[in-house]
Design goal:
It contains five helices and six strands. The radius of gyration is 16 Å and the shape is globular. The chain has about 160 residues and is an alpha+beta fold. About 5% of the residues have low confidence. About 25% of the residues are buried.
Length: about 160
């Protein structure tokens, strides 16, 4: 895995300055109590596929990457879980879980940083599954809607 990335970004609207950082996997447990709150809603939307404990284990093992956006007071305002996914003909960086406050203040810079990381890691693109409302951010950043996602519980079978 690439070494940690720490980039300070320029001031955004409301004069809030954030730093975007890829957390080294051996530090994920240390900051987990500050970060986990940002993943609660996304994990709940996984329909039982994931738990917060499993997500932390994926960070600690290096299977997933933990990205954070924090302000000048070192308050973590956002977090993202990514994974490099290898396919037979290419690799993409998958954005699996994201959450936080003041999203508009740090999301564009987070997207820029993960794009650089993805390219340096040999990925051809970014991908993700998101709720419908998330499209308002993705549509202006070069993403396309490719396929719908289907799901059926088999409890009635």
């Amino acid at each position: 895995m690439n070494s940690a990335t720490v980039h300070e970004i320029t001031e955004t609207k409301d004069s809030v300055k954030h730093t975007i950082s890829l957390v080294p996997m051996d530090h994920c447990s240390t900051i987990w109590n500050q970060v986990r709150v940002h993943f609660v809603e996304a994990i709940e939307r996984s329909n039982g596929r994931w738990s917060l404990e499993h997500l932390l284990a994926s960070f600690v093992s290096g299977q997933y990457q933990l990205w954070i956006a924090y302000n000048e007071d070192k308050t973590i305002n956002g977090a993202l879980a990514t994974q490099i996914v290898g396919y037979p003909c290419k690799a993409n960086l998958a954005m699996h879980f994201i959450g936080g406050t003041g999203f508009d203040d740090w999301y564009p810079d987070l997207l820029k940083e993960i794009s650089i990381f993805a390219k340096e890691s040999g990925c051809s693109g970014l991908e993700g599954v998101a709720r419908k409302g998330f499209w308002k951010w993705l549509k202006d950043d070069g993403f396309t809607k490719e396929v719908p996602f289907y799901e059926k519980e088999l409890s009635d079978v």
